[in-house]
């Protein structure tokens, strides 16, 4: 399905084309003119409009105070912008393989020029292997035109992510449209590398969100989870109460503990 709207920018780098489309109320980033890579509503430039990106923020339920976040894959910058806009003390590190994509994000998607945003032009695996920095939360959503980026399904990459987390840190992965064999392999690697300290839930559209904890999963009561969801919903302007309930229902939270 071709994207409706007017193409307002078309550039190309060694990896292929980068298109920006505009409709009456949205701006869309696409790499092939068919699939949305990212979508921004013009009346809410810092919002998160794709359900799975909202759901990935569920990792924040378990972090007392978030100071540093890493986003693997900048794209149009939706996640980075939302985090920066929601938390005034937060530093965001975004890893983007294509410099041309980062340029388009700044030019067409209002990526802010702030000293709290650090953009690293690098391959995600290479960056993780070499970084000395620790994050409270790492968002890993690595896909190419064929589906999940195979590099995400490597024990060395997952181990490097775990090493780059603070003690209370969480790695958040988005999994969708993945061949059963690859999904099985990823599940096994995650269980091994994170010693089964995992939570997951499914969201509309067939995406599975996985939270992998560096250390023990924090003990949290259902009512605390829902309270945190309500607070984050107000801070971030996204329906976090819904994801708190979904996570609670999926993992059988009761009124005592998980």
UniProtKB/TrEMBL annotation:
Family assignment from sequence similarity: Belongs to the spermidine/spermine synthase family.
Domain annotation PABS: ranges: 1-225
Gene3D superfamilies associated with the record: Vaccinia Virus protein VP39
GO molecular function, one term: ATP binding
PROSITE patterns per UniProt: PABS_2 (PS51006)
Stored SUPFAM superfamilies: S-adenosyl-L-methionine-dependent methyltransferases
GO BP terms in the entry: polyamine biosynthetic process
Gene source species: Photobacterium frigidiphilum
Descriptive protein name: ATP-binding protein
Record-annotated active site: 141
InterPro entries in alphabetical order: PABS (IPR030374), SAM-dependent_MTases_sf (IPR029063)
Alphabetized Pfam families for the sequence: Spermine_synth (PF01564)
PANTHER family: THERMOSPERMINE SYNTHASE ACAULIS5 (PTHR43317:SF1)
Entry keywords, A to Z: ATP-binding, Nucleotide-binding, Polyamine biosynthesis, Transferase
